[in-house]
Design brief:
Mean pLDDT: 94
Structural class: alpha/beta
Shape: globular
Distance between the termini: 14 Å
Bound molecules: 6-O-phosphono-beta-D-glucopyranose
Low-confidence stretches: none
Largest sheet: 8 strands, parallel
Oligomer: single chain
Strand content: 5-15%
Radius of gyration: 21 Å
Number of strands: 16
Number of helices: 15
Length: 461
């Protein structure tokens, strides 16, 4: 039995603000990410996103490296502030040209573009109206979506609406998209923005496919104490399902609405929005997977802690408390590694929604070492990928319809909150936190391994 379908989309991912640099080039207006230096929460000596990996200048070389690895697809994000200049929606033609050229280059190599419309970096001018918390956010996103569909509709077959909408809600302070005072209003506004983009895509580009791209990972109950299972159901609800239910089923579950009410929180939803939400189903589900969560029911002494980052945190009294999983090893950066959880998650998502699935992130952040001879021996990354791809193939044998795998990241880029020292790429970018060096690209051992894997369509795993 073949492990992967014939046209399986092997590739990898990046995002504009973490990869491009060139923040003042080509008419780009400021984004909320441009001037972040270090991370206020951790106080670490880490770089911000001003320079990133200089992909803005080296995009041709970068795409040729992807082509050399044999990529069938490349998932990248378009930077909203490179495209739209102001609240009125004026278009920056230099920004259009940048991505148009990039799309042509991908086409030259036969690489399918998978385009994320918004990956954390909204333009500063959106902050002038209060950012995502203002219901007008969805109108601005719709204006931007229209421009993307108009200019790139003939070159892009797959659109991803919003990267990790759920993480923007649950860990907004860690990734720097603002505080989460009315997080459910933020969630709802993002859901409406997403729905408007899907609706518009249907109208303008009937042949294109569009889907959401949250970060999904199943939750385990720490013990078979029934209250731990209730905690698992609870966390699954606010960590995973609410964001997929709204887009795939068109409404919020009663369970979720009751939870919001019981927490003394609220969000405003108009009748018109209800109609839009119910009228904008996706063609596929894309999701990012790094690690599972394990929970137990809280005890009276537990308190709500700060959310540490995308994979840690969350303590909600009487609801759930995330705890370490003793069966799992961790990365150098403390993220649990759970390849079997990947198969479990794929099965859960598919059982629930029965839509094709595309994996748009998965990977290991590590302190890679560039040797004097230009080699980087990242055997731990190969090991990580082997195990995850093996589990993905088992999920496919279980019956899950997986159409692509685009791990994080194609080439080194700056982590959301841990600088350039936390590297994910198949290609090493020679720069340090504050010394930009020459930004030269070096192929890691995983580069050659992934190239071979793609050549064999994963049969040799
Ligand atoms: C996801 C994001 O949360 O995880 C990426 O979509 C991010 O933008 C990736 O880089 C890895 O997280 P981090 O914090 O290690 O960069």
């Amino acid at each position: 039995m073949k492990k992967f379908p014939k046209d399986f989309l092997w590739g990898a991912s990046t995002s504009a603000y973490q990869f491009e640099g060139g923040i003042n080039e080509g008419g780009k207006v400021p984004s909320i990410m441009d001037n972040k230096e270090g991370h206020p929460k951790y106080g670490k000596d880490i770089t911000g996103f001003k320079d990133a990996s200089h992909h803005y200048y080296k995009w041709k070389e970068d795409i040729s490296l992807m082509a050399e690895m044999g990529f069938k697809s490349y998932r990248f994000s378009i930077s909203w502030p490179r495209i739209i200049k102001n609240l009125e929606g004026d278009v920056n033609m230099d920004g259009i040209k940048f991505y148009d050229d990039l799309l042509d280059e991908l086409k030259k190599y036969g690489i399918e573009p998978i385009v994320t419309m918004f990956h954390f970096d909204y333009p500063d001018f959106v902050s002038e109206i209060g950012g995502i918390q203002n219901a007008r956010f969805s109108n601005l996103f719709e204006i931007y979506s229209k421009v993307l569909f108009e200019y790139f509709g003939d070159k892009v077959n797959y659109w991803l609406t919003i990267n990790e909408l759920n993480i923007m809600v649950l860990s907004s302070s860690a990734i720097g998209t603002g505080d989460d005072v009315s997080k459910w209003q933020v969630m709802h506004n993002l859901n409406v923005a997403q729905a408007k983009a899907i609706r518009l895509c249907r109208k303008m580009l009937p042949k294109a496919k569009i889907g959401p791209a949250p970060n999904i990972a199943v939750t385990y109950a720490k013990t078979c104490d029934p209250t731990d299972y209730t905690a698992k159901l609870n966390l699954d609800q606010i960590r995973n399902w609410v964001y997929l239910d709204i887009v795939c089923r068109g409404s919020y579950s009663k369970n979720f609405l009751n939870f919001v009410k019981a927490s003394g929180e609220n969000f405003v939803m108009t009748e018109e929005e209800k109609v839009i939400l119910n009228d904008s189903k996706p063609d596929f589900i894309a999701f990012n997977y790094y690690s599972t969560a394990t929970v137990s029911m809280t005890k009276s002494e537990d308190i709500q802690k700060d959310k540490a980052d995308q994979q840690k945190g969350i303590v909600i009294p009487g609801f759930a408390k995330m705890v370490p999983n003793e069966f799992l090893e961790k990365t150098q950066f403390g993220w649990e590694i759970d390849p079997i959880g990947f198969r479990n998650t794929l099965r859960d998502v598919y059982d629930r929604y029965q839509l094709p699935i595309m994996i748009t992130e998965n990977g290991i952040g590590a302190r890679d070492v560039l040797n004097e001879d230009g080699t980087i021996h990242d055997d731990y990354r190969i090991e990580y990928y082997k195990k995850h791809i093996e589990q993905m193939s088992l999920a496919i044998q279980d019956g899950v319809d997986v159409i692509g795998y685009m791990p994080w990241s194609a080439i080194d880029l700056v982590s959301t909150h841990e600088g350039i020292s936390k590297r994910y790429g198949f290609v090493y970018v020679d720069r340090d936190e504050f010394d930009l060096k020459d930004m030269n690209r070096y192929k890691k051992d995983s580069f050659f391994w992934y190239k071979e894997l793609i050549k064999n369509n994963g049969e040799n795993i």
